[in-house]
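Appendix B. One record, verbatim.
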Amino acid sequence: MLDSSPIARMNYNELKIRILGLFEPTQELDSLKIRELLATGMTLKLTDKAVEMALLRYWRQGLLSRTRRAGRFQYALTARGLARKEWLLKN
């Protein structure tokens, strides 16, 4: 039996576009700041775990670099991430 309750869902690359769109080419953001920025501009509520998992996926895909400072990951857009961001915004 299917659940007929309406659930808000994101398009396939919507979260990727939103996260990559937060970065300027030389800017670093920590995971907390990314979650805060996403929360201000989104109508869909994401759990902290969902955002952390997305960041992990994008790091593994080579779209973001990360370093640990003061117990928190700092993320930056890679050249590959910038190219992907530009491609996603065009299509």
